Amino acid sequence: MRRRGLEAFRQLVGFLLLSLAAFGAAIAAVNIDSFITDLSLYLAFNLAAYAAMLTALILSVRFDRLGIFCAILPNLFFMYLLTGDFPLEKFSTAAQDMILLAAWYFIPINTLLFALVKDGKFVSWGALIRLLFIVLALGGIIACALSPYVSEIATYLSAHVFTSLGAPKIALGGAAIVAVYSVIDTLLHRQKTLRIAYFISCVAFMSALAQFPDRAAMLVFFTCGALIWTIAYVQQAFRMAYYDELTGILGRRALIEELGRLGKLYTIAMVDIDFFKKFNDKFGHETGDQVLKMVAIKLEKTRGRGSVYRYGGEEFTLLFRGKKAAEAMPYLEELREEIASTPFTVRSKDRPEKKPRRPLKPAGAPMSINVSIGAADSGVVTEGVDAVVKAADQALYKAKETGRNRVVLFDSAKTARPRQKTAAFSEDLLEGIIDPAAKYKKPKAGASPEREEYEIEEVVSPPKPKKRRKKTDEPA
């Protein structure tokens, strides 16, 4: 959890630095003396502003982010009304002032509304209601701007709304609320850079309004706001591609890229949860997901600077840079013992969704989850990284064959004598998830290879297995 929190903080800081760089570039562009007089530069920023806005809208549809789409769409609308040649020719000065005043109120309130509301799908009644709300609000603004009484409307709003409350105060207040919500949501749930983007883009769009009637400067800040959303989308796409959604740790794609950047000396360890398939079949996939999360949390705490990745299914990979397998062995043994000594209780199906004030007693007895680990290093296997991975897999299979819940190194696996195979325990013993201190005899004669059963000599902590009824010969 600690490493995961540091990674979330690192990504958040990276997003903030990129956003500040975009703001700095916008401020520098506005302060260039020849910026306003250079027509080609103005046209370039005009094209860039619309391209950035449309890109942000398309990405919101691609990532199925209805709230972000509804937050960006009005900004594109106001950018067109306040900077486009055609609208400015049709609107009077009073109409432009009224549109600017409406934008000061609408942008922060709309951003706050969709930042607080949970994202929904585009094809739904909720999406239709939200889009209808935006269309009606923006349509009302256009109707007021084209009304012959626009001067009276602007005068009334300025006298009773703008003077009493102050548009900048309302805008900054709304932005402050968005900022507080974004920070709290990011700290609680982690990796929510899209929440922070609500606040930063809102500040950029309001900075554009503050530049009115300088259309060139407004386009620069509108472009900045759209670029901030694009940066947030890119970071979100990176997380989706390189991080495992269930456990929150790096996935196989990140492992493959990291393997291509290794030095001369490294150790690769393959970790597999024992009897996970039987556990999953018996207690359900939801409980299996809980086991995967618990093991991932333990793996993240591995000492020795080991990097953890989810290889696939119930298999994980630990990567130790600059260490031989013998040097990583103590850390792997410590990890194995830590997982085996952590009790795991299957949650009851009728447990409440919210955590009660007084914790309820678990429905069943706690069980122990065991893992088998195989490791190999580049000093023993010199044929390349693919060969090291295969050697670690072979060591993992040897750990499975020699009793499970153990760590086997590749160099020792070549000469190790396998003990009696304990690949599949009785279904009745699964409820106890075998204790590592238990001893097993050879399988009974005539046992099916698909379902081998073992007699227990000594079991320390798990409950004793249920006695099976002896089969009686039926009369002929």
- The low-confidence parts are 415-464
**What composes the largest sheet?**
5 strands, mixed
User: How many individual helices?
Assistant: 16
Query: How do the SSEs run, as a string of H and E?
Result: HHHHHHHHHHHEHHEEHEEEHEHEE
Helix content: 55-70%
Oligomeric form of this entry?
Answer: single chain
Please tell me the total number of domains. 3
Q: What is the number of strand segments?
A: 9
Give a concise summary:
By secondary structure, the chain is α+β, with helices and mostly antiparallel strands. It is 58% helix and 9% strand.
List the defining traits of the structure above.
single chain; 58% helix; 3 domains; alpha+beta; two-stranded antiparallel ribbon; 476 residues; 9 strands; Alpha-Beta Plaits; five-stranded mixed beta sheet
What does this structure look like?
The strands form three sheets. A five-stranded mixed β-sheet has the order 2-3-1-6-7, with helices on both faces. About 11% of the residues have low confidence. It has three domains: 241 residues, no CATH class; 149 residues, Alpha-Beta Plaits, CATH 3.30.70; 43 residues, no CATH class. The protein is α+β, with helices and mostly antiparallel strands and 476 residues long. The protein contains 16 helices and nine strands.
List the helices and strands and how they pair.
Layout: H1 2-30, H2 39-62, H3 66-83, H4 85-90, H5 93-116, H6 125-146, H7 150-165, H8 167-189, H9 193-210, H10 215-242, H11 252-259, E1 266-273, H12 276-283, H13 285-300, E2 306-312, E3 315-321, H14 325-340, E4 343-344, E5 367-368, E6 371-377, H15 385-401, E7 407-409, H16 410-413, E8 439-440, E9 456-458
Helix pairs in contact: 1-10, 2-3, 2-10, 3-5, 3-6, 3-10, 5-6, 5-7, 5-8, 5-9, 8-9, 9-10, 12-13
